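Troubleshooting: if your tokenizer reports a length mismatch, compare your output against this known-good record of 100 residues.
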Amino acid sequence: ISFLAFFSTIHSQVGTPLTHQRFLRRHKGTYGPAIYASEGSFPFPTTPVEGLLLCGDSCFPGIGVPAVAGSGIIAANSISLDTIVPQLKVLQQLKSRNSG
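Known-good structure output:
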């Protein structure tokens, strides 16, 4: 046994539906919404709450890192320039509330 092999540690992480359920709080360890291909597609980022948008693997375009990043871009681009100032004010209020 070489010196490095003797002191090296093997580390392994396994992601199963059970670990996804526990650590990611996913229903039965699944990803994305429960949609049958014949019944629809991923929802867009809008919600019934005015001004609240969603992004992630449960929104269009779907599951996977590139798709999730794309959903964030879609949500960000859905915000018009006239809503940025009010959003920044809310973020500043939250920041001051948390720091004090």
